[in-house]
Amino acid sequence: MEQFQPNANNILEVLYNRRPGYLPLYEHHIDTEFIEKYTGEQLAGYQETDPEYFFTKVTKFWKDNTYDAFDFEAPICDVYPDHGAIMGGKLGPIQTRADFERYPFDEIPSRFWEANKPKLDAIRKVLPPGMKAYGGCGYGIFESAQDLVGYESLCILQYIDPDLFRDLFIRIGDLYVELWSRMIREYSDIFVFFRMGDDLGHRTSTMLEPSTIINHILPQTKRVIDLVHQGHKKFLMHSCGNIFEIMPDIIALGIDAKHSNEDQIAPFDEWIKRYNDKIGLFGGFDVNLLSLGTYQTVYDQVLERGTEYRRMCKGYGLGSGNSIASYVSVDGFRGMIDAAKQIRANEKRG
Amino acid sequence: MVNLTNLYDAIVKGNLELAVSTTREALQENIDPQTLISDYLIKGMEEIGAQFEAGKAYVPNLLMSARAMKGALELLKPYMEQNKEVTSLGKVVIGTVKGDLHDIGKNLVCSMLEGCGFEVINLGVDVSDEKFVQAAKENKANIVCMSALLTTTMVYMKEVIKAFEKAGIRNDVKIMVGGAPLSEKFAEEIGADGYSDNANAAVTLARKLLNK
Ligand code: B12
After folding, report:
1. If one looks up domain B91-209 in CATH, what number appears?
2. Whether A206 contacts chain B with CB within 8 A
3. Which of A104, A174, B18, B60 has its CA 20 to 30 A from that of A287?
4. Residue A30 Cβ contacting ligand 1 at under 6 Å
5. Do A264 and B180 touch (CB under 8 A)?
6. Residue A327: closest CA among chain B residues belongs to which residue?
7. Nearest CA to ligand 1 atom 54
8. Residue whose CA lies nearest to ligand 1 atom number 84
9. Chain A: nearest CA to B129, how far in angstroms?
10. Which pLDDT score is estimated for A152?
11. Short-list A78, A84, A67, A66, CA closest to A119
């Protein structure tokens, strides 16, 4: 069989909501632990100690599995002093106006670039021909607020100190504009499109009241989207959970495509019916299926449903509804990749 | 005279200050604490829970209501300790299962169960089968609640149920499960006694399982 050559422009078609020449594969993320499990090679730690080695291995893995582009996000939250509240079990460093005033927001950009410039430069050096990255600055506006305050305190803060709640989101937005501006200016050559991940929903509804999201979070997201568009790039929004109530507002921000879906919330068909006339879509296959299904069950389902999604959609890239977490089975992942290759082969044969 | 409807409204609207001031006034007027709890506080939590289940209220609303409820209960505690007639609907041991750190939904189920009259022992996240069994034994729990948000950890729930069987106490407790990737069918397959997809329905289910 002829060797796969990645072509980032192929997956980019999804962002224009056009049908790509062949079915592109997409993942929000593939855990390093999963790649280790799959290849038997140790990778953990190398991202910091030897980024060129790390990204050579990682991009090779994505390329071998016939992806046009791979995910890289430079994580903003990781450089927040005293971060980690988003993981639960502890309060974030900002609980009061005094904490907010004292918080060293001005130091974040230098910490961010110090941590991430070596990685971005390494990616530029080792990208296989034809392949690019997608992502950009990691973590969404809401996720940043959760990391700085803590989810439950943030829910309460909007009622007990609405001014602080408002100012916090504006300050996060300012920070994002600063970081994203430089990301777009200096690294547009290595990213095929930019993406923000911000999990705004859960199983039955949105994580905050829709009006709160619309008034405080989305205006800041919009600032980033506008920057991306001014830089002549396309923008993908990744957001988990049941966010149907605010999808019209998210689309109105000007996003070009959307990723994340879960079967317990709605079948992927529903996403296609509701939104594919307006934006490109990625995903389709629930993490439950990829983790628990055998090679054959995954292969059969992805072949059948994937063919159908490709037929129904304008812009569509196939992948899991979320990410290839460490616990996804190697067989399930293989089943999905092989089925995608088969869909391409079937189309070629006509 | 105190307007007790304020107490109900304070819980539904999540107004801590109003909940506390109304409770204080009611106690000064010697109104029975059990009446305050059953007829106003719990009724308020039930209302906001029902609104959440119907998609008309959101997690922050539930958290604000739980906060108001807690404020009122703080004031009522000394009276409840004196008066043994104020009893709980049952004892619940709850945790997010081993390998899983998602705790927002589990905490919400805790707040609703507590707010609606159950005694809740929260084991936190990353809870092993042994820990569930031990806590259920030590606390003589009526119900064990497990939460899981990941495919792998949801499968682990079956191990926990097996551990209860092995310890010979499976029939002493009702086991409830929940979390984003679960379904009713999955709950049945692993031999749980019940499943619900939201915190309000969890309370209804707990009551049903204990015939309360
Ligand atoms: C917020 C979130 C996180 C936060 C968690 C913060 C915290 N403190 O809990 C962070 C960022 C840390 C996180 C991490 C990860 N996450 Co996450 N996360 C979510 C998200 C967006 C929302 C979960 C949530 O808080 N919901 C809000 C509450 C209110 O809802 P709930 O938990 O569903 O609970 C309600 C009901 O389910 C029910 N309920 C819950 N428990 C119980 C128990 C009983 C007994 C009963 C009766 C009812 C009940 O009542 C609750 C209230 O109504 C979901 C998306 C989703 N659809 O849920 C993904 C999701 C759960 N995450 C997912 C993944 C993959 C991960 C990671 C593996 C990502 C990664 N690669 O690192 C890690 C795993 C970390 C770990 N080891 O646990 C996937 C899981 C897929 C799968 N099938 O396995 C999901 C479903 C996203 C998706 N699109 O696929 N995550």
Report:
1. 3.40.50.280
2. yes
3. B60
4. no
5. yes
6. B152
7. A202
8. B150
9. 19
10. 96
11. A78
Tell me what the pLDDT averaged over chain A comes to: 97
| Interface residue of A156, A322, A324 to substitute, partner B, most B CBs within 10 Å | A156
Does position A1 have pLDDT exceeding 70, yes or no? no
Grouping H, G, I as helix, E, B as strand and the rest as coil, residue B97 is: strand
Q: A266 CB under 6 A from ligand 1?
A: no
What are the residue ranges of helices labelled H in chain A? Answer: 8-15, 32-39, 46-49, 51-64, 97-102, 108-126, 141-149, 151-160, 162-187, 210-212, 218-230, 247-252, 268-275, 287-292, 295-312, 330-349
pTM of the model: 0.95
pLDDT at B87: 67
| Spatial contact of A305 and A267, defined as CB atoms under 8 Å apart | no
One fold for B5-82 and B91-209: no
Domain residue limits, chain B? 5-82, 91-209
Task: State residue B88's pLDDT score.
Answer: 83
Domain A8-349 in CATH 1.10.760.10? The answer is no
| B181/B203 Cα distance (integer angstroms) | 20
pLDDT in tens, A288-319: 999 999 999 999 999 999 999 999 999 999 99
Question: How far apart, in whole angstroms, are the C-alpha atoms of residue A253 and residue A219?
Answer: 8
- Whether the CB-CB separation of A318 and A309 falls below 8 Å is answered with yes
Q: Could you state, in order of their start, the residue ranges of all structural domains in chain A?
A: 8-349
Q: Per-residue pLDDT tens for A86-102? A: 999 899 999 999 999 99
CA–CA gap between residue A78 and residue A139 (Å, rounded): 9
Gap from B124 CA to chain A (nearest CA, Å): 8
Record: contact B152-A155, CB cut-off 8 A: no
Partners of residue B180 in chain A, C-beta under 8 Å: 202-203, 262, 264
A178 lines ligand 1 (CB under 6 A): no
pLDDT digits (tens, 9 = 90+) for B79-90: 877 765 556 899
Q: Is the CB of B154 under 6 A from ligand 1?
A: no
B98 CA to middle of ligand 1, Å?
Answer: 14
Residue A348: CB atoms within 10 Å: 8
What's the pLDDT tens digit per position in A255-275? 999 999 999 999 999 999 999
Closest CA to ligand 1's atom 30: B105
- pLDDT at A3 (0 to 100): 86
Give the chain A residue whose CA is nearest to the CA of B64. Answer: A156
Residue B179 has pLDDT above 60, yes or no: yes
Contact A325 B150 (CB under 8 A): yes
Identify all chain B residues contacting A156, using CB atoms and an 8 Å cutoff. Answer: 60, 63-64, 67
> Cα angle vertex B150, ends B145, B152, to 5°?
95
Confidence at residue A119, expressed as pLDDT on a 0 to 100 scale = 98
The string of DSSP letters for A164-187 reads HHHHHHHHHHHHHHHHHHHHHHHH
Q: What's the pLDDT tens digit per position in A162-193?
A: 999 999 999 999 999 999 999 999 999 999 99
Q: In whole angstroms, how far apart are CA A233 and each of A18, A108, B1?
A: 16, 25, 66
CATH for the stretch B5-82: 1.10.1240.10
